[in-house]
Amino acid sequence: MNAALPLITQAERRHRLGRRHCLAPSARAATVVQAADAVVALHATDAATVFLSARARLTASNPAAIEQALYADVSLVRLLSMRNTLFAVSTELAPHVDSSTARAIAVKERRSLLKHLEEDGQGLDAAWLAEAERATLDALDTRGASTGSQLSAAVPALRRKITVGRGKKYEAETGVATRVIRLLAADGRIRRDRPRGAWTSSQYRWVHTEPWPAVPVAEARAEIAGRWLHAYGPATEADFKWWTGWTLTDARKALAAIGAEPVRLDDGTTALVSPGDTLPEPAPEPWAALLPALDPSGMGWADRGFHLDPAFRASLFDYAGNIGPTVWWNGEIIGGWAQRGDGRIVWRLLGNPGHAAERAVATEAGRLAEWIGDARITPRFRTPLERELVS
């Protein structure tokens, strides 16, 4: 370790998280786009996460305001991107996410589907797929926003079934509709629109849209690296590689392109920050937050040791590494929460964070319950503590 490097302590990392992730009350965002940009992207695999993550970072909001950004203003869009995961990003950032990450995913998606079509042996090929895609876009132009089932009813090609893994243990017959629609979305030719049902629903309608403007890949990756390091630094190359899902070489090149600077951490290791981002970080006012499953503040690093006691991990994560609903106090995860069937928000604090933390968490739970109203939240990826709390 180079003792001449600037030192950033664990406490300062937590102070940064409170401010830069818009979680301390004085740092909260005024708009949904500002809330998303503060953490680069909001996880969107679980429909409720986008709404609850934005809510926690806004000075004032309701579900309708977030729906306005997603479906009316279209200032926030969902893209299959980092780690082959669905994220919601601002339309300003979307072309960079598309060029840096989503394009490569789309190429793999197309290659995979064409391989399955060839192996199925029905004579379905690239020409057939192109025609199925064209017919799907024509149906959207005619019908307007439509669900996958509505598109299948309108486009005969989408009702075709193929056999995947023929002759193998995992052989299964599957429809092509979901795969064709997923491919069109990955290509940026359709996007998710307002779902059927409430804001917690994942049964999206689809609309025809234009692909994102092309951005040179190196430029796009540097833009992502700069935004991520500002939001999550100090952090390591390994953290950035994990978050993006890129190769280590690509992650290193992007960090080098923005001139990332090394700093010392108080555990004896080194990490990176944005150029010049080494000034001491004073503490914000005390803050508590109830963040949803897959929230960016819990999923932003491969190594979460500065804000998560390793002893709590087994309770708060599922077997695949997805974080569940968490309770935070001054930049540290101190417990988990859940919503029971009757709508009540319940939580459990792990360890003994003190009476001030308990009072603040109770206040936040009340605010969250009022905001959710009659909606019911069940995370897609269930964790041990969340299951216990609702049982």
Could you write a compact summary of the structure shown?
The chain is α+β, with helices and mostly antiparallel strands. The chain has helices at residues 10-20, 32-38, 47-57, 63-72, 94-120, 126-143, 148-154, 177-186, 217-232, 237-244, 248-257, 296-299, 313-316, 355-372, 384-390; strands spanning 7-8, 42-43, 76-80, 86-90, 146-147, 161-164, 172-175, 190-195, 204-208, 261-265, 270-273, 288-291, 326-329, 332-339, 345-349. Among the domains are: 111-208, Winged helix-like DNA-binding domain superfamily/Winged helix DNA-binding domain (Arc Repressor Mutant, subunit A, Orthogonal Bundle); 288-390, no CATH class.
Structural overview:
This protein is an alpha+beta fold and about 400 residues long. Among the domains are: about 110-210, Orthogonal Bundle (Arc Repressor Mutant, subunit A), CATH 1.10.10.10; about 290-390, no CATH class. It is about 45% helix and about 15% strand. It contains 15 helices and 15 strands. It has helices at about 10-20, 30-40, 45-55, 65-70, 95-120, 125-145, 150-155, 175-185, 215-230, 235-245, 250-255, 295-300, 315, 355-370, 385-390; strands at about 5-10, 40-45, 75-80, 85-90, 145, 160-165, 170-175, 190-195, 205-210, 260-265, 270-275, 290, 325-330, 330-340, 345-350. The strands form five sheets. A four-stranded antiparallel sheet has the order 12-13-14-15. A hairpin with a 4-residue loop joins strand 10 (about 260-265) and strand 11 (about 270-275). Helix 9 (about 215-230) packs across helix 11 (about 250-255) and helix 10 (about 235-245) packs across helix 11. The radius of gyration is 22 Å and the shape is globular. The mean pLDDT is about 95. InterPro entries: AlkZ-like. This is Winged helix DNA-binding domain-containing protein. It holds the Pfam family AlkZ-like.
